[in-house]
């Protein structure tokens, strides 16, 4: 039964991601992105990674969407001009998508042969993150803070 939910939420997350990328309305895209994050959290729940599912919903479904909306509020959307259609960019994006899908599928096949999940709970994640990898964790958090301040500064810059 969990396989049915896994495939259901996987397809749902792909549909929401496609809507988020292709939507002309930026608010609709944000709501679709929220649906994608929540359905990805449900995918984590179906495979038994409850902590990752909770983190996915709280961090990405909550914080990232708030950051997204905050960035939209600081931007002057009226000054944005629509870009002309560039076929070579679409072709490059399509090629990158195909290569990424190929690598994910072939890498997934290699990983699933001997894959035994060893991390599923909060303790399994917290111990390495806060003891073994504390410095990289803190460096990444400072970088994210710098990126947030930079995004606000760029968004508020007057032209």
From TrEMBL:
A GO cellular component entry from the record: plasma membrane
InterPro entries reported for this sequence: NADH_UbQ/plastoQ_OxRdtase_su6, Nuo/plastoQ_OxRdtase_6_NuoJ
Primary localization: membrane
Catalysis performed (reactions): a quinone + NADH + 5 H(+)(in) = a quinol + NAD(+) + 4 H(+)(out)
Topology in the lipid bilayer: Multi-pass membrane protein
Recorded GO MF terms: NADH dehydrogenase (ubiquinone) activity; quinone binding
Pfam entry (one): Oxidored_q3
Subcellular location: Cell membrane
Protein keywords: Cell membrane, Membrane, NAD, Quinone, Transmembrane, Transmembrane helix
Protein EC: 7.1.1.-
Residues annotated as transmembrane: 6-23, 30-47, 53-75, 87-110, 130-154
Enzyme kind, highest EC tier: translocase
Family statement: Belongs to the complex I subunit 6 family.
Function, in words: NDH-1 shuttles electrons from NADH, via FMN and iron-sulfur (Fe-S) centers, to quinones in the respiratory chain. Couples the redox reaction to proton translocation (for every two electrons transferred, four hydrogen ions are translocated across the cytoplasmic membrane), and thus conserves the redox energy in a proton gradient.
Name the record gives this protein: NADH-quinone oxidoreductase subunit J
Organism: Phorcysia thermohydrogeniphila
């Amino acid at each position: 039964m969990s396989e049915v939910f896994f495939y259901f939420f996987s397809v749902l997350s792909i549909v929401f991601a496609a809507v988020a990328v292709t939507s002309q309305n930026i608010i609709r895209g944000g709501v679709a992105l929220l649906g994608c994050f929540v359905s990805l959290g449900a995918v984590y729940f179906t495979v038994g990674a409850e902590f990752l599912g909770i983190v996915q919903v709280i961090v990405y479904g909550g914080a990232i969407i708030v950051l997204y909306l905050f960035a939209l509020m600081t931007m002057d959307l009226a000054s944005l001009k629509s870009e002309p259609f560039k076929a070579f960019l679409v072709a490059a994006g399509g090629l990158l998508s195909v290569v990424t899908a190929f690598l994910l599928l072939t890498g997934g096949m290699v990983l699933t042969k001997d894959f035994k999940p060893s991390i599923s709970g909060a303790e399994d994640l917290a111990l390495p993150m806060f003891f073994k990898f504390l410095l990289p964790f803190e460096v990444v958090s400072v970088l994210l803070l710098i990126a947030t301040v930079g995004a606000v500064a760029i968004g508020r810059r007057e032209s």
